[in-house]
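Help! Submission page says 'invalid entity' but I think these are all valid:
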Amino acid sequence: MKLGLVVPRYGVDVVGGIEHWLRLLCEHLVSMKGWDVEVFTTCAVSAATWADELPAGDVDLEGVTVHRRRSVTGRDPRSGELGVLIGRGAAAVPESMAQRFVDLVGPVCPDVLNEAASSDCDLVAVTPYLFWPAVHATPRLGRRVIFHCAAHDEPELHLSIMREVFGAVGGFAYNSYSEQALVERTFPIAQLPASVIGATVVEGSGDPDAARAALGLNPGEPFVLCVGRVERAKGSHVLADLWRLYRQRRRRAPRLVFLGPVHEGLEGDDDVIVAGRQAEDVKWGALQACEFAVTPSAWESFSLVVLEAWLAGAPVVVNRRCAATLEHCIRSRGGLSFFDYADFESVADRLLADPALGARLVANGRSYTERVFNWSAIVDRYELLADHILARAPLRVSVPPA
Amino acid sequence: MATNEHGTSDSHDETDLDRLIGELETDAARRRAEPGYPHDVDARLHFELARRAPKAQGGPTLTEIIARLQELAGDEPDVPPPGRDGGAGWRRHDGQAVAQHLQRLDGRVTALNLATATALGAVVQRLEQLEGRVRQLEPLDDGVASSSPALDGSEALDRWRTRLAETLPRHARVLYAESQADEVVADLRAQGIDAYGITSTGSRHRPGPDVRFGELRTHLTAVADEALGAVVLVGVPDAMIAASIGPMVGELGRVAQSVVVISEAPWWWRLRVGAVHADLAGGRPLDPDTWLHAFHGVAMVGTAEYDPTGQTYRVVVQARE
């Protein structure tokens, strides 16, 4: 099997959920299944600009051949203004405006697509749905595409042009059942081969004491943890407010620590510590040491952090508005959720007062993570999906560029 | 702690956890009712949480729409003052004022109509989303009687299994629902048929592409027009309720080039389960003529064939050219 991957950015320096995850998947398909994998990507590292930061050319990364080509344009700041308009009613946005929006979001990289289309790959994985490469790759590569759409219920998903993007592909690799349900509610594509592949994490190691020191905590101090980018869309700021209210009502409650790059400023105070980006061993040490971990974002399509927390022994609390993280909690029976402050307070009180309950939840979560999201199970599921797509009608028909 | 093959826990502590979640919800409700509960801060945080959550198509929230409705309904346009009897000039002035007033009223009514339609549209959309989510959590009965050994289609399947592939296309997608879907789909795929299945029994978390968990009719609504070469129904038709046939056949006619229905004959089913169970059953096998009649209504024609015992039958229909 020869698999291609069209992705806006690729490499060890790329920190991003789906891109990071697909890099690991490609490497494991090479090492565990003996597949040939070629990546068709740009020279970008940052999704905020798509600027060409890496040299163009071909390199080998862990057995994966990476073809990097320069973009014609990166992300245009005007995409934000159009995004606001789209947010007011995506379905009514004219096709020309939607195309313009995708062009502005970028990265516009026809060379990447041309190479993928002319390659001898049996199948081409494409991700994620809302950037220029995917919007233009799926109609062109058609039934050869395994679509890792990484869909959220956001306005862009409801743009009229997305019907063709989703309808053209050979099959779907979903992160979760809730993502599959969302896509099938939105587009008539349920007849296409699909599999819930998910993602996986490799348990890391860390030292709780060293982590406390790195995070600015006192030795042995209990704390609650939130791992991930600090930004409003991720729910960081509202979590900080929830915790401040909780500490007003529970004077002896531990402090809350945010660990992750700060994209939108959040002031630390007596209740909340904003520790910023930290090394992996600090993250794992913190997950081992915390009383419980909170994932406040309602926009996750998978959430590796939830699985990492369970592996490290931390009970998990998620935002009930997030279908993907709630799905982890329900399937594993290993996590709790909140909808408003009263729920949050009730859950926090219970977890802080009852470590045995936390341990039981963690055991369920860990078991679920190890059984469902181990590499062997994941590459097997992926291979089966690829076989299904390949077994269908002739795939090597590609539409020429418009 | 036991887990099934898909990693979903089936342990004894499921009940405990369900109880825990119930306790937490009750506890949260009690806190909300306590004097001194910070309702104002809670409302602000609730708003912030909702604002940062998926909102399909990015439209206004129901609350925003209703607020707009109230604004329109409560906003009285100025009524013109009664005119004085001052001759033709005054009468003309009165007439103009009334005309302007009516024009403003007309504009208000139109705006109110639009806002009402938007609100109703939003309610419908929200209900559809909820229905979708509820289906995910708790599959609907969908016109099919609850699973019963007498209604699972296995007897009919046994009679027709070796001949299942003979009417199916080789180069088109085939959907199989739902009796023994795992084994049958594997058989069909081994024979080179691009088959996948759907079942409403067993684990709801089926990660692979072969057989998915769900209700047939719900699945069909998410399939593109004419996307399937064939749909094979075994087990589903043994438990149909008459009222659900029309919508099901309508969807089948939209998505499939051909449909195969394999079922027990009603007389045999009645004999087998006994008169009492048959009379009280929620669903029952239909006569093959009923299927042919229903498919005729969506421009699909075909034939019915009984097995040599007459106990089961197969209906095969195709879209008219």
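Support: the input was valid. A stray whitespace character was the problem, and the output above is from the cleaned input. The longest strand of chain A covers residues 36-42.
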